[in-house]
Amino acid sequence: MGAVSVKPQSTPTQTEDRVARLERLDRTIRAASAQRTLYSGVLASKLGLHQTDLECLFIITLGEKVTPGRLAQETGLTSGAITGVVDRIERAGYIRRVRDTNDRRRLFLEPVADRIEEIRAINRRAFHSWMRELARYSERDLDVLLEFAEKNYLAAVNATIKLRREVREDGAAAGRGISGT
């Protein structure tokens, strides 16, 4: 099965205007994001995890001293849902709960290094060609791409926070019997 084309139906010309190029960039980023989401689902299945568990595990591995509360805050999941997620990830052997030595009430979610390396090895195989492509760029180009990726990530985080707030407000309004129309 071939990849979905993210290019416009007509062949782009030298005169493709800025708006069209920005729209094409947006389509391509969204297509890549969708494909990574699909990849994540398959990887989670291969690891015996739910996709949400894998995404939460990813957040845990990116942070330092991640607590269940912080994980709930970053994902928007309830504390009850986070408990289930953490239980499943721990049972699968990818994290361990570690008590804070300064405050025994506080709990950190610590990745199990050798298990995380197993996931990274799978990803390295899967994305080897992507890394070869990135290696073709100059240091200056990589700086631009990195800046773009960081800004893209922050925009996605902010959009998620805003949408989550709207959903809560819509739910509260519905609970009060207020119509959105």
TrEMBL record:
Coiled coil: none annotated. This is MarR family winged helix-turn-helix transcriptional regulator. InterPro entries: HTH_MarR-typ (IPR000835), MarR/SlyA-like (IPR039422), WH-like_DNA-bd_sf (IPR036388), WH_DNA-bd_sf (IPR036390). Residues 15-154 form the HTH marR-type domain. The lineage of its organism: Bacteria, Pseudomonadati, Pseudomonadota, Alphaproteobacteria, Rhodobacterales. Signal peptide: none annotated.
